[in-house]
TrEMBL record:
<feature type="domain" description="HTH tetR-type">
    <location>
        <begin position="11"/>
        <end position="71"/>
    </location>
</feature>
<dbReference type="InterPro" id="IPR036271">
    <property type="entry name" value="Tet_transcr_reg_TetR-rel_C_sf"/>
</dbReference>
<dbReference type="InterPro" id="IPR009057">
    <property type="entry name" value="Homeodomain-like_sf"/>
</dbReference>
<keyword id="KW-0804">Transcription</keyword>
<feature type="DNA-binding region" description="H-T-H motif">
    <location>
        <begin position="34"/>
        <end position="53"/>
    </location>
</feature>
<dbReference type="Pfam" id="PF00440">
    <property type="entry name" value="TetR_N"/>
</dbReference>
<protein>
    <recommendedName>
        <fullName>HTH tetR-type domain-containing protein</fullName>
    </recommendedName>
</protein>
<keyword id="KW-0238">DNA-binding</keyword>
<keyword id="KW-0805">Transcription regulation</keyword>
<dbReference type="InterPro" id="IPR001647">
    <property type="entry name" value="HTH_TetR"/>
</dbReference>
Length: 204
């Protein structure tokens, strides 16, 4: 087999691993999804699995990247990057979906803390994700406010940081108390900070 064919086969196997691992973690969570269980799901030994990833932590970071791609494909409307109403619908759809996949929420929350160390394999993922999310939120705020100032003189960057912090914080609260309405709470926040982004009931 040529080097190009071998590389393509390796990429395909890596993608297969990530898709199956995503299912395993969604079902069993961070603690329950061992390298052994994921390896068995794709008919590999543990050593064979780690041939494609340098560590369990890198594997889990890539699982989160794969989750983000799925969320983008499933929930992002074409206008959601520029239209506040479309953004609000898409963002809340992701939040509601997360309430159905406790294992992935646990994985995200656990690694989000561990990845604070620059040496952690997931550090780059969380930094890149945070920068991208806050950039998008800042742009949405500027569009909704038609400028650089929102309610009570809030700046777009402050809006972005607040929405990210509330989303991550609500996930932590929800893991302890599943009765907490993550989507409803975030919807109320968005309604207060970007008025007019949706008529009553549009985001339900």
């Amino acid at each position: 087999m040529s080097k190009r064919g071998s590389y393509a086969k390796g990429v395909a196997k890596r993608e297969e691993i990530l898709e199956r691992a995503l299912e395993v973690v969604a079902q069993h969570g961070y603690q329950g999804a061992s390298v052994k269980e994921i390896a068995e799901a794709v008919s590999l030994s543990q050593a064979g699995l780690l041939h494609y990833f340098t560590s369990k932590e890198e594997l889990f970071a890539e699982i989160l990247r794969t989750r983000d791609k799925h969320d983008q494909a499933a929930f992002a409307e074409p206008e959601s990057m520029v239209d506040p109403t479309a953004f609000r619908r898409s963002y809340l759809a992701v939040v509601r979906y997360n309430a159905q996949v406790l294992g992935l929420v646990h994985l995200f929350a656990r690694m989000n803390v561990d990845a604070a160390s620059p040496e952690h394999p997931a550090h780059a993922y969380f930094r890149e994700r945070g920068v991208g999310l806050r950039g998008m939120l800042s742009d949405i705020a500027r569009t909704a406010w038609e400028g650089e100032t929102g309610p009570a003189g809030m700046r777009p960057e402050q809006f972005a940081a607040i929405v990210q912090a509330v989303t991550d914080g609500l996930q932590a609260q929800w893991m302890l108390d599943p009765e907490i309405d993550m989507a409803g709470t975030i919807d109320a926040l968005l309604a207060a900070l970007i008025p007019g982004s949706a008529a009553p009931g549009d985001a339900d």
